[in-house]
Amino acid sequence: MFCASIALRQPFAVKRMGCLDGAESFVDSTLSPNGRFAAITTQRAPRSGVAELEWRLRVVSLATGKVVFDEAAEPGLMVRAISD
Question: Which tens digits make up the pLDDT trace of 28-56?
Fold first, then answer.
């Protein structure tokens, strides 16, 4: 399992921890303007019968640590902005 922490700066003086399945790799992330959400892109090596890397986009609530959005993403997706 791969775990990552997000250190938030003033006015957000907290750290949050998130973990991914060991088969997934972190690619990119960004925080919402008010620090309520983090959008995270990951990729997974191809499984048997799948020719390409599998990309996912997830949005995590930093208040609860719960994933509020999770869907397949286009290969190469880099998140640049997310709204509160």
Answer: 888 888 888 889 888 888 777 767 888 99
Q: What is the largest CA-CA distance in the chain?
A: 47
Contact indicator for 3, 42 with CB cutoff of 8 Å: no
User: Using CA atoms, how far apart are residues 2 and 7, in angstroms rounded to an integer?
Assistant: 17
- What's this model's pTM, rounded to 2 decimal places? 0.73
DSSP code per residue over 11-63: T---EEEEEE-TTEEEEEEEE-TTSSEEEEEEEEPPPTT--S-EEEEEEEETT
Is the torsion defined by CA of 63, 66, 72, 76 positive or negative? positive
